[in-house]
Amino acid sequence: MTLPRTIDCLIPCFNEQESIPALLQEMASIGEAIGASFSEPLSLGIVIVNDGSTDETQAVVARELKALRGYDRRSLISLSRNFGKEAALLAGLRHSPSEACIILDADLQDPPHLLLEMIRLWLDDYKIVNAVRKDRSEDLLLKRLSARAFYKVFQQFSHLRIQFNSSDFRLLDRVAIDAILSCHESIRFSKGFFAWVGFKQANVYFKRPARRGGATKWGSWKLWNYALDGLFSFSTAPLRIWSYLGAIVTLIAFVLGTIAVIRTLFLGVDVPGYASLFTAVTFLGGLQLVGIGVLGEYIGRIYIETKRRPQYIIETITEVT
């Protein structure tokens, strides 16, 4: 008798009480469809990580999981506070023992019906299946341009082929999960890890639907800081850039100084006074402050990593039977 291949669906959530009932209703339907769509036996599980929600998310999840059918394993992991999505993902991946894990958000902007195509590609021996947005027309122009700029800069700096227009919505094979879990950084950027581990990858494309309920937790400032975490975690290029910039500024200063001396000694031209001095001092002072800031980002990350604090603390784990 052939043992079924095991797949878990990992759903991190924070204050998603409005979305959870509709999400798990769709997950029940897709679970039945998966069971009827593949000749190879599959065993499905679902792992929901409550990332310190302050609303009724935990109670709603516990209630809905008990009524959920079509899944052999149903788990609710509750963290002691809000540690962030990266920590919640890490907790879920460490808890999942299955051969594959599909990560999706709780807000139904990651359509569950794509799980069928993801599993099909996984059974064709792809180790990572990325869900890629084929249309971002609903986003503001500034957000589209900044996202494209980030992807290009990240690829240039890190030399990793990060997938454009993809979120954390993807399927990971066990070998990819184990490779990601072998990385012990405290400051994590999952999109970088998904590219860093390599392996055979495939894409499925979709148009992202509107959010069903609640509000997004990712504002512009949070996205900006997340982008910086990605750049500083996977590249030392910012340090190298400031080294080059320092050399260029030094060369320019030397050339201008030489010209000023020649003009004064041989042409009798007075060197401009206060205005030029003020401009030069403030310009170089600004460069130095930015350079110190870049250096401080790396030193701060070293400080955080040396403390070796756990990325999260689990308050309870509930296995629904």
How does this model look, in words?
By secondary structure, the protein is of the alpha/beta class. Helix content is 50%, strand content 18%. An eight-stranded mixed β-sheet has the order 7-5-6-4-1-2-3-8, sandwiched between helices. The longest helix is centred in the last third of the chain and has 34 residues, at 274-307. It is elongated. The protein starts with a strand and ends with a strand. The mean pLDDT is 81.
Could you give the topology of this structure?
Elements (H helix, E strand, L loop, with lengths): L4 E9 L6 H18 L4 E9 L6 H11 L5 E7 L5 H11 L4 E4 L11 H9 L4 E8 L5 H18 L7 E8 H8 L8 H7 L4 E7 L12 H15 L2 H31 L6 H34 L6 E7 L1
Parallel strand pairs: 1-2, 1-4, 2-3, 5-7
Antiparallel strand pairs: 3-8, 4-6, 5-6
Helix pairs in contact: 5-8, 9-10
Short synopsis of the structure:
This protein has 321 residues and is of the alpha/beta class. Helices cover 50% and strands 18% of the residues.
Q: Which key features would you list for this structure?
A:
single chain, 321 residues, alpha/beta, Spore Coat Polysaccharide Biosynthesis Protein SpsA, Chain A, eight-stranded mixed sheet, 18% strand
Question: What is the CATH topology assignment of the largest domain?
Answer: Spore Coat Polysaccharide Biosynthesis Protein SpsA, Chain A
Instruction: Give the overall shape.
Output: elongated
Intertermini distance: 25 Å
What is the top-level CATH class of the largest domain?
A: Alpha Beta
For CATH, the homologous superfamily of the largest domain is named as Spore Coat Polysaccharide Biosynthesis Protein SpsA, Chain A
Enumerate the spans where pLDDT stays under 50 for 5 or more consecutive residues. none
The residue-averaged pLDDT reads 81
Characterize the main sheet.
8 strands, mixed
List the domain count as a whole number.
2
**Share of residues in helices:** 40-55%
